[in-house]
Amino acid sequence: MHMCDEGERSMGKHKLWQSIEEVHGEAHEPVAPEPLLEQPFSRRRFMALLSASMALAAGSAGCRRPDHKLVPAVAAPEYQIPGLPLFYTTAFQHKNAAFGLLVKCREGRPIKIEGNDLHPISAGASTAYAQASLLTLYDPDRIRRVRMGNTLRVPLETALAQLAEALKEEAAAGRLCYLCIEEHCSPSYEALLKALQADFPWLRVVFMPSFLAEHAAAVNAQVLGIDGELVPNLERADLIVTVEADPLGIDRYALWHTRNFAARRRVRNRQEARMNRLVAVEAIMSLTGTNADTRLRMHPAAFEGFLAATLRELARYRSVPPVLLGAAAQVPAAYAEEAARLAEELHQAGERAAVLVGAHLGEPIHALALAINLALGSVGQGKVFDPAYVLPNSHRKQPELERFREELRAGRVGAVLFANVNPEYTADTELRQLLARVGRKAALSLYHDETAQSCWIHIPVAHPLESWGDALAVDGTLSVQQPLLAPLNEGIGSLQDVLIQLAKVLAPERWSEVENYYDFVRRHWRTAYGVDDQQWERVLREGIYRIQRPAPPLRVELNALARAIRPSGLDRSRLLLLVLPSYALYDGTYANCGWLQELPDPITKLTWDNVAAMSPGTAHRLGLKSGDLVRLQQEDGAIIELPVWVQPGMADGVVLTNLGYGRTAGGEVLRNVGQNAYPLLRSGHLGYTAVQLTSLGRRYPLATTQRYHRLQGRPIVQLASLEEYTRPEGPQFHTPEFPGYPGADGRRIPLTIVPPYEYKGHRWWMVIDLSACTGCGACVVACQAENNIPVVGKEQVLRGREMHWIRIDRYYVGPVENPRVVHQPMLCQHCENAPCENVCPVAATTHSPEGLNEMTYNRCVGTRYCLNNCPYKVRRFNFLNYHTDQRPPLEMLFNPDVTVRMRGVMEKCTFCVQRINEAKYHAKDEGRTRVRDGEVLTACQQACPAGAILFGDANDPDSRVSQLRRSDRAYYVLEELNVRPSVTYLAKLWNAPVEQVHQLRES
Amino acid sequence: MRLRNELLVYRREALMFTPRIDRRIKQVTLWGLASLVTAALVTYFGMHNRVTDVGYRPQQPVPFSHKLHVGELGIKCIYCHAGVERSAHSPVPTVSTCMGCHLVVKAESPRLALVRQAWENGTPLEWRRVHKLPDYVHFNHARHIRAGIDCASCHGPVERMGVVSQVAPLSMGWCLDCHRNPERHIIPAREISGIFTGLRANGQTVQLAQSTPVTNPPYGMWSTPVDAPEIPGVPMPKLPGRGPENCSSCHY
Lengths: 1003, 252
Hints:
The complex is a heterodimer.
Chain A: E1 16-17, H1 20-23, H2 43-60, E2 69-70, E3 85-94, E4 97-106, E5 109-115, H3 128-137, E6 146-148, E7 151-154, H4 156-172, E8 176-181, H5 187-199, E9 203-207, H6 215-223, E10 239-243, H7 254-263, E11 277-282, H8 287-290, E12 294-297, H9 303-314, H10 322-329, H11 336-349, E13 353-357, H12 363-376, H13 398-409, E14 413-419, H14 423-426, H15 429-436, E15 440-445, H16 450-453, E16 457-460, E17 469-472, E18 477-481, H17 495-506, H18 517-529, H19 533-542, E19 545-546, H20 558-564, E20 575-581, H21 594-598, E21 606-607, E22 612-614, H22 616-622, E23 628-634, E24 639-646, E25 654-659, E26 688-699, E27 703-704, E28 719-721, H23 722-726, E29 740-742, E30 748-750, E31 764-769, H24 778-786, H25 794-798, E32 807-813, E33 820-826, H26 835-839, E34 845-847, E35 853-855, H27 865-869, E36 876-877, E37 906-907, H28 913-925, H29 939-943, E38 949-953, H30 960-964, E39 970-971, E40 983-986, E41 988-990
Parallel strand pairs in A: 8-9, 8-14, 10-11, 10-13, 11-12, 14-15, 15-16, 20-25, 22-24, 28-41, 31-40
Antiparallel strand pairs in A: 1-32, 3-4, 4-5, 6-7, 6-16, 17-18, 18-19, 20-26, 21-27, 22-25, 23-24, 23-26, 29-30, 31-38, 32-33, 34-35, 36-37, 39-40
Chain B: H1 2-13, H2 19-46, H3 49-52, H4 66-72, H5 77-80, H6 95-102, H7 113-121, E1 127-128, H8 141-146, H9 152-155, H10 172-180, H11 182-185
Helix pairs in contact in B: 6-7
């Protein structure tokens, strides 16, 4: 189907759909509500309650509410004033990716995480993981006391003494002690581990990542001499081709890539319309694929054929070494036509083109991509693939893990320490069996997870927000990780602190000078970077420190590259399974975080479950529908039972499922959520494997948030191609037809009986750029953190009661086999002529003189008429007391500036009115009468890495929102309803030729 | 006779159901109305802030006397309740503030035993809160201080109180009365409150002789005249000399 053919010229006529059921006209399955009362209510009980409440009512007249206490500190530091926030910088590490944070603290505890604007990677933005790490800080399931055997509350000194004794015994018997660590990017931690290994020769440190995806590192090591992954700098790319790579989604540096990518998508006006271009080649529907300008749906067996064909075509324009061409000739070509077109485009872009390959794909594909990149010249200093931008600690871990297994099999390992790793959950059967035979095991982690349960000693460690440390970002920016509050577990420090204390017990004389890890970090910075005390204060304040790294010389071993290029041999006749980390939970470390469990997956919009996603064609062939339970069995016997999810856009013959689910221990939130997909990884490697699928004949309810919002053919999302947009007569994006007259700001004002209102002072407005939004969901979690939004659980999400104030609607456009996808953040539109305000019987929702739709929680009686009337369905009702069952210390997480709502009260996005008020106070304090543009940032705006959300004052003609809302891409959702929203959307542009890329059929 | 008969007929035809049921309906309605009216009267007269809160005078754990410290000794409000000009809260002083004097002054007094204990043990004092607004209201002290409103406007003559009691109902209606008619209700900043003692917006202190209001340049004082608009064509917010009346200024 052409995206915009001759017959459908005007915008708004695209058929948008949201689910397979809608396309095929099937009715959405209603969920029957369960009866409220579990057991019958006896008459006697009723009378008892009634009389009790009458007595209470009689006695309450004239009585006062109970006393509250005022408890000031004994001696508070003078800069800490109750009621005012303090901001501290720290660093966030997502495995071996890092960026700087700025954390807002109130009364001595952190309540909100933001990105550090000075940090070049984040520039103020953050990810869903960074926002959610705040919840894990206050997680009640965090272990509080040291556990030894079956004894709780063992003092740390005792446990460490016993552990040291055991280690010395094992060392004396000639056995080794292994310390298993997770991937990190902290130079001080590395220095500490080196120091420990130097002092204790029986100690070995091994990286134990949850999964392995090392083909990129392998190819880079053989060809470029760099044992690690290169992180591309997408700012330097005009054309990005991804082969099942997900730089905008699951990539560890997704924050940086999204920022760089979106910066080239925000088109200002027709005259200067230049965008980058993203071509995605994939078998699964990834987040990057949904944002692609052109998406080629391709079976994974064809990837290397396609790339080989592209390389050969590229050789017609550029010089490609013959040895590489010879190697590529061995690979049978696939999709030659598309390869030819792509090769031409790549040649046009030259060194500003890059081919990215998914980490899970095999070496041949990485080698072919590297060959193309080398031919284009995009590998080199200052280019997209800069050899200085190596992901820290991304070297191949397989060799050391093999050595570890060898030692385990030989019985030479006497003790194992698990430092924030969980092999009981993630490792394969063999490794788990080998580990079970080790005599002494100790776990140092936050939760009593699967591994900790199998260990002799479990020492709780402090959360990264409670610890000192440092983190190195890929561009050479160092940040200090500083604690935001004293550890909630009294007396127990961070992981590194515990290691140092253990070292002190083992060798007191050598570790006497180092008091704790803070001391160690300071010393390391002094010796390694020459940072003295004054500079240290500055680094703490700003949060960044640049270090100079010498650019390594680039060498290319062409023969090695040629050897790596060969057919992969994926079997097309079998059903192929791919297991990838999930968007919400990644590898399962965040499984106990309610915010992330309830964050809808950007593609499937599922919460609280993982599924076996497959294409509509495959589902039809196998006779399956979404929700059918199936069993997937691999050749080596690994089995998993998952519900099916029909995912448009996937290639036929491929099934995708996610990691991070199916955990059995470690907290209340992660119980009975999804199925564990780790057993399906072969030796822990991600990749395509053949599976056999059998239907179990049962169904399983899936809590998705996307079926409740139908489109009914309305132009809620406006789209165009860049080519159409740049034509002078280009598409007009908002010309709804209704009787009216042109208004002052160019908008068409419908005829109405409501008199116009003049907004004095400020007029708050928001602009959301659909071309920039990638659908990552950072805004959703940021809003949840800022506004005390509860987590409701799977059962409530099944009833449509999720509480997110901002949601990202995902619309499909086009054929079911290969649709285009648009992500649209939807929040309260703060309509001038709000349908919700008109119908509230108690005037609990009103309009502020500055354009905000206000919500007064205490006045609301719970009629829900406003929710009924809202055309955008953005209002949320507290059906239950979601907050009353909070286990301590979760109440420390609440933002004190936002009311915590109880049952029976309606809530919705307030444009972060608490931040607006704060900005107004700040302006008044300085004697100004207006808030300046950029002084008030809503939580969603601040978190968005793509800069898709912009908030400001429309009365100020110089503000960015004023200018953007006059853009020729501007439109309003459901404008014809005459609700006059205060949120302008900028239409989504695709940088694709008007004629659609040919549908790729299965060959 | 005929009238009586007619009356009897009238009475019989006025029955809706059986006489028993009719009587029951009448009883229930009258009792129901009576209890509703009683409940309304009890609520309005008995449960309004005027009754339940005004005059509330809890005994505090330590017999601190504002009358002595503020009234007789002349310590300014802002000296102990420091930070009120910057924060939404008016912070109750820490034990260190008390001990600032009482390490030396009346260091052995039995009335200060609890304070000394708190200081030595590091356990805070737990005062009983007198003025409490519900959690869904966000009252901001700093805005009112910077508007030049004296503490006594809402808290009454605290310098004459031996034990602090609440003098104002602090209900929403009472707040709005002042927001709408500040001249009628406000006590302008007095010297005893310390608001005028030159704490400027940038934190610099000035000599007492140069008493100026806390905001510099003054904007936002309750008596501020209406300025010219900063952006031509966009009028100033409604009545800048008054307090806000829209819901989201306090309820968010």
